[in-house]
Amino acid sequence: MEILAAVSIHAKAPMQLEHVDLNTELRPDEVLVKVIATGICHSDIGFRDEHMPFPKPAILGHEGAGVVIKIGSAVTKVAVDDHVVLSLASCGKCKSCISGRPTYCENVSALNFKGTRTDGSCPYHNHDGEPVNGLFFGQSSFATYSLSNERNVVKVTPDVPLELLGPLGCGLQTGAGSVFNVLRPTGGQSIIVSGVGPVGLAAIMAAKISGCTTIIAVDIHDHRLELAKELGATHVINSRIKNISEEVQNNILPGGTDYGLDTTSVNSVITEILKSTHILGHTVLLGMPSVEKLEVDQSAFLATGRSLQYVNAGDSVADLFIPKLISLYQQGLFPFDKLVKFYDLENINQAIEDTEHGITLKAIIRMPHD
């Protein structure tokens, strides 16, 4: 079938809208999804700019939501016409997967970043018959249709607007899951979050739901810090103006916070977040590193027992966690719709530019369908 896709050709170059042929002769475990809308994540931009490898030309996009229109012969989890959110692909067979940790799948690279199926076949081609790399994060949802696998489609309720739900598959799941599933704060505890884009704001909302009574948001943009306060932050720090750890230790919570969470991947910021936690504090890192090496000051660790952990996709089981987030949204506890701005597919490059410049927190691309 012919689909319309935003194709990345070169690093840092605008994506091009192209008609692409998609082979819809499904393998037994595959699912064909009509994409209604897709969130833009900073990882999409990072892979476009080749900070991480993915072969070009490529159809990126990994926060898709849509309607199932066809299933493979062995698929039982979803049926035609089901509403679904697309998430990270995993094999379901390795040690990590069978122990309930699919975000650490041992086959994550082959399933998400190869550009083809694991056997080397490519279901996407241009009109000259040349392959177009797809299956990005198991979905390549910067397109009107997505070929996915049964394992990375999550059935969701039809009671919530489907166009809103795609970001739950990656960014929002990552922020909220890192709090709920990894840090697991209890009532009265404290956390500091650096970088309050969508991932950080999801973490702040999760911390509020968890009962944290001190929630510190750190950013360089005052408008983001204002939104962080609206969503649950009790204190804010503009790190262009104030030293993070000094402000925490001297003026907000002497002794430091129980937990830290960083979405910036900036070494100097990570050091400050570590220094902002108390002895035996636990800090998690999220997001794509902007530099090759992680370097933090030894003084942040020395004789403190502080720990630092990298977390993938919120350490979540998407089939369980995404419906939980939707339920929290329906109860008014996780109002992620306050982060969203919608764009049409033809304006995807403007949406990416607005995301890069902090104009838009969470851009969602609506797909054109008759």
UniProtKB/TrEMBL annotation:
It comes from the Bacteria. Pfam families: ADH_N, ADH_zinc_N. Residues 12-365 form the Enoyl reductase (ER) domain. Keywords: Metal-binding, NAD, Oxidoreductase, Zinc. Transmembrane segments: none annotated. GO terms for biological process: formaldehyde catabolic process. PROSITE patterns: ADH_ZINC. This is Enoyl reductase (ER) domain-containing protein. It comes from Flavobacterium akiainvivens.
